[in-house]
UniProtKB/TrEMBL annotation:
Keywords: Lyase, Metal-binding. InterPro entries: CbiX-like, Sirohydro_Cobaltochel/CbiX. GO terms for molecular function: lyase activity; metal ion binding. CDD domains: CbiX_SirB_N. It comes from Polynucleobacter brandtiae. This is Sirohydrochlorin cobaltochelatase. It comes from the Bacteria. The lineage of its organism: Bacteria, Pseudomonadati, Pseudomonadota, Betaproteobacteria, Burkholderiales.
Amino acid sequence: MKALILFGHGARDMRWREPFDRLAALWSQQIPSTPVELAFLELMEPSLENAIGLLCAKGATSITIVPVFFGQGGHLRNDFPVLLEACRRQYPDISLSATPAVGESETVLQAIVKFGIKHL
């Protein structure tokens, strides 16, 4: 079974995660056949490792991790590959893949332009 992890940075203020919760809820409503979990690099739970465990418990065998970051900063270039490799060692029977940061997508950038135009 395929599954998805929406991976964010994390923050001390719990309200910061509200858009992530809404994003996961939208995914679940629109694509209920593919489980989704949130995961955070730091300061919030679940961690990437724990989110993978949650999805494995639901029967996932292939998990795509979507970094919900605007760009490929140091965390995604340096910290994330190490974390992903550790998870691959911990879950050798699970196919783990990752997309580029969502902010690298032309579709996402165009959505932001449309958002700006709407609010002019």
